[in-house]
């Protein structure tokens, strides 16, 4: 219980990857992404508090209307949603997984679609079976609270906190050279005043659909990349005139050596970011810097 009430960072899929050239060299993105220095943290989605009748689980798969474009590629978004409720019908947790479905018939697109089918399946299996998953803790907490209130008051109407939730949305799909990049944003709520945002980026070879790593696509060593990105962040911190960063922000950045794990692709280049609470308050959201593809050899 105590462990459940703690704020936890979402289990992001730190899948990376990425580059190459296409015949036409087109670039494009279907969803515009922010490239300002500080990006505001997404507000939590409203929690669905409707109770279920009998079953403790309910799964729905839906497709969003309309096709989207990323360079020469057309795709649409689908979402799988599942809820878990106690035996007495009280909603404990909701999970929503949004993912792209490419509409072409190339081998690369088919492989990417297979990747996301497996991603959804693996995520749902983890929610179901991992004793440390958000679902497991939510069910345990809600059941204990429900039983406690039933014993004390003979009712289960008033709960001390809303149901838990985890929501993955597609933030953008980018076509660059011989690459397709899919950027996810997530939001996890497990109690408290607010949840925590998360991000991850998947990069694929257009022709084969193989997932690639960013490290395999740039012409810099890890140390060289860390220096380049760190200097960009330090410049942002040093030029701040509003006191938007923690006093030890520069110290934190100088000690950081895994910038390559926190990135996503846009039309302009690779955006690297620090997470909320890392060098600035939660309300400041993500701090971002952009490195043009040319500087990375992409």
Please write out the topology.
Blueprint: H1 2-5, E1 27-29, E2 38-39, E3 57-63, E4 68-70, E5 73-85, E6 91-102, H2 107-129, H3 134-153, E7 164-176, E8 179-189, E9 196-205, H4 222-238, H5 249-255, E10 263-265, E11 269-274, E12 286-292, H6 293-296
Brief characterization of the structure:
The protein has helices at residues 2-5, 107-129, 134-153, 222-238, 249-255, 293-296; strands at 27-29, 38-39, 57-63, 68-70, 73-85, 91-102, 164-176, 179-189, 196-205, 263-265, 269-274, 286-292.
Describe what this molecule looks like in 3D.
The chain has 298 residues and is α+β, with helices and mostly antiparallel strands. The chain has one domain (2-296). It is built from 6 helices and 12 strands. The chain has helices at 2-5, 107-129, 134-153, 222-238, 249-255, 293-296; strands spanning 27-29, 38-39, 57-63, 68-70, 73-85, 91-102, 164-176, 179-189, 196-205, 263-265, 269-274, 286-292. Strands 1, 3, 4, 5, 6, 7, 8 and 9 form an 8-stranded mixed beta sheet that branches. It has a 4-stranded antiparallel beta sheet with strand order 2-12-11-10. α4 (222-238) packs antiparallel against α5. The longest helix is centred in the middle third of the chain and has 23 residues, at 107-129. The N and C termini lie far apart (47 Å). The relative contact order is 0.20. Mean pLDDT is 82; it is low at 1-55.
């Amino acid at each position: 219980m105590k462990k459940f009430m703690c704020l936890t960072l979402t289990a992001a899929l730190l899948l990376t990857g990425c580059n190459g050239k296409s015949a036409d060299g087109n670039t494009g993105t279907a969803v515009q992404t922010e490239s300002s220095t500080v990006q505001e943290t997404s507000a939590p989605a409203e929690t669905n508090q409707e109770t279920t009748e009998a079953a403790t689980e309910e799964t729905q798969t839906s497709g969003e209307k309309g096709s989207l474009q990323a360079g020469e590629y057309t795709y649409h978004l689908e979402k799988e949603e599942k809820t878990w409720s106690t035996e007495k019908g009280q909603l404990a947790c909701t999970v929503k997984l949004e993912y792209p479905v490419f509409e072409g018939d190339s081998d690369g697109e088919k492989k990417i679609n297979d990747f996301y089918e497996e991603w959804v399946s693996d995520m749902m299996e983890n929610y179901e079976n991992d004793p440390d998953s958000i679902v497991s803790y939510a069910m345990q907490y809600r059941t204990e609270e429900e039983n406690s209130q039933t014993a004390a008051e003979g009712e289960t109407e008033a709960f001390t906190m809303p149901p838990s939730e985890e929501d993955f949305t597609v933030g953008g799909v980018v076509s660059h050279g011989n690459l397709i990049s899919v950027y996810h944003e997530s939001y996890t709520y497990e109690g408290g005043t607010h949840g925590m945002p998360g991000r991850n980026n998947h990069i694929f070879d257009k022709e084969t659909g193989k997932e690639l790593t960013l490290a395999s696509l740039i012409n810099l060593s890890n140390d060289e990349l860390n220096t380049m990105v760190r200097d960009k962040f330090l410049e942002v911190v040093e030029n701040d005139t509003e006191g938007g960063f923690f006093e030890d922000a520069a110290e934190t950045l100088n000690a950081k050596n895994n910038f390559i794990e926190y990135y996503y692709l846009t039309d302009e280049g690779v955006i690297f970011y620090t997470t909320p609470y890392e060098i600035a308050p939660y309300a400041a959201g993500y701090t971002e810097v952009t490195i043009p593809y040319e500087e990375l050899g992409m």
